[in-house]
Amino acid sequence: MAKTTVQQMEQVTAPEKAYFILNPKSGVQSSISVPDLIAEHLDTARWSPEIVLTQHAGHATDLARQAVAAGARLVVAVGGDGTVNEVARGVKDTSAALGILPKGSGNGLARHLGIPLVLPQALALLNEPTFHHIDSCTINGHPFFCTAGIGFDGLVSSVFAASTKRGLSSYVQLVVREFRNFKSETATVSINGRDLTSDFFVVAFANASQYGNNAYIAPNADIQDGLMDVCLIRHVGVAEAIQLGFGLMTKQIAHSNLAEFHTCSTVQVQSPEPQYFHADGEFMGQATEFEVKMYPKSLEVIASLGAKA
Ligand SMILES: Nc1ncnc2c1ncn2[C@@H]1O[C@H](COP(=O)(O)OP(=O)(O)OP(=O)(O)O)[C@@H](O)[C@H]1O
What we know:
With 309 residues, the chain is α+β, with helices and mostly antiparallel strands. The protein is 30% helix and 36% strand. It folds into 2 domains: 2-129, Probable inorganic polyphosphate/atp-NAD kinase, domain 1 (Rossmann fold); 142-296, Tumour Suppressor Smad4 (Sandwich). The protein contains 9 helices and 13 strands. Adenosine-5'-triphosphate is lined by residues 23-27, 54-59, 79-83, 86, 104-107, 166, 212, 281-282. Keywords: ATP-binding, Kinase, Lipid biosynthesis, Lipid metabolism, Magnesium, Metal-binding, Nucleotide-binding, Phospholipid biosynthesis, Phospholipid metabolism, Transferase. It comes from Rufibacter glacialis.
């Protein structure tokens, strides 16, 4: 009798609202129609979908907030890490969860969360969801969910933002070109009660383990431990940069004597010269002072955390 009642309740449960926020500019353009994929693969007994397109940078945050206000249980970012960041800003600290259909060129957070990069499979994950709470961070008040950084990776984000080219090979070409002109600036990193001063090539703050494209800046980062991993890389020459690149792609950077790691919940950086910085790969500007903070378990996501990339 009780069994029948549960079955009947399951049958009458209405699908919950899911908003898909799609950035038409993200990733390498392809002929795949995401609305068609959603129509074909989303379980409409589980989710009642609504699809909205972004019209400009920053729009996804407004759309995500509107979706939450309209009662969405799930807000899905369809795009790369920039779109994921914008949607997650509107979803964190609410009763809605973030989903990801990875359509970018790097897909760092999706990879860390074990979300399939093949869209029908990512939709299958939404159909049978596992919900997790993950940490998020801010750098000078700008939220990030994957990584942020100062120095060379900040410079690269600024040049990439101005470029119309997307994809891994364009990115690698840009990194090599900018490396030749880059000059490490002096900075003081205040972390766990110590002041560390040096000419830093990169100061990276990792909530997740990778930048994207399986480039692991902090292979041991745990997105649910309430701590960020800080990776300090001091001034490097060409040979060391190649070694670092190899370490990033082979998950071995934590064993390199070129990188130093700390875990913490807050960190400050001061620099006499303005430094470029990024949040989730998006260029955020220049500053001489930085404060990076951690907000434990502040974002609910649909993920497959056991299947970390
Ligand atoms: N309609 C739009 N027109 C132009 N830019 C947009 C639009 N919608 C969003 N954007 C901006 O596009 C930028 C890139 O988005 P996103 O990061 O998702 O893609 P990507 O750069 O191709 O992927 P990845 O970050 O994985 O390399 C973001 O800065 C976002 O603000």
